Amino acid sequence: MALADLLGERPLVQAPMAGGASTPALATAVAAAGGTGFLAAGYRTAEAVADQVRAVREAGTSAFGVNVFVPSPAVAAPEDLRDLRAALVPESRRHGAALGEPLHDDDAWQAKIDLLCELAVPLVTFTFGCPDAALLDRLRRAGSATMVTVTTVEEARTAVDRGADGLCVQGLEAGGHRASYDPRTGVDRPLLDVLPDVVEAVDVPVVATGGLMTGGDVAAVLKAGAHAAQLGTAFLRCPESGAQPAHKAALADPGFTETAVTWSFTGRPARGLVNRFVREHPGEHYAYPELHHMTRPLRSAAAAAGDPGGMALWAGQGFRAAEERPAGEVVARLRAEAAEHGTRI
């Protein structure tokens, strides 16, 4: 199915959330309710991605996609890594967890691309950059539509020039990682500010994402020219979500009142709830994925201890509207709210 046809039939898209929140159960529940479900390949092995795709297909779901992280070419400076490691020692002692090694890897990029070409999933999307034209063409010949996440008009034009079938435009309100090709030079703009500029600049389908929590939000981006709306935080508290219990609870905890963009967990900018870790580790250190690997055992230990203060609590600006109800019911609510704004989804 062509990307425009897929989005036309299913303009409500569940965002791929790496780190465990996106699951086959969530993707199939959203698809069953008439949306487009997504799996996140980031931080998973190719074998684990294959298992998840198999689970989605065995559940009878055909409208879904898989998101992949584009490898980062930059390598963190050794002196920065030494400073970051020293600053993390108190956190290591807090839960008795050893710091991880500062590896610079490509997240099994080639193995995942080979797998996705073999599996021919309906839609393959990319974050943190744009693959070259040959790779996008290879996926298309295998039967997959391709889409690249962008934050600027310049990034959008690059993706289209290389042959992407569509774009996902991310506004600054979005939870989780900023998708900027180079986070050190990226420009943060609100979604409804950057979206019309991208729509005007390109001639491919555009999906809008960033802080969308209500049917009114969905209606607004569709009226602004988007073919579809992508929501992530809105599904985090659903029972089908794989987010940690402490993460789900924090989204409704009145003690958490705001989000902020932090570099402190992974070495790339990402939006999450402001907690102890975010406050104690300020600064902007480009050290991805080295810092991600260093803090991963600490984050896992905090989650195991039920300590939200040491976790990466990724969330968009509208996090308080996230509901603890099945994903199908969330989709139904969004559809009803959008109808109140004169939009059918």
From TrEMBL:
Its cofactor is FMN. This is Propionate 3-nitronate monooxygenase. Belongs to the nitronate monooxygenase family. NMO class I subfamily. Pfam families: NMO. It catalyses: 3 propionate 3-nitronate + 3 O2 + H2O = 3 3-oxopropanoate + 2 nitrate + nitrite + H2O2 + 3 H(+). One of its GO terms (molecular function) is nitronate monooxygenase activity. It comes from the Bacteria. It comes from Nocardiopsis aegyptia. GO terms for biological process: response to toxic substance. The keyword Glycosyltransferase does not apply. Keywords: Detoxification, Flavoprotein, FMN, Monooxygenase, Oxidoreductase.
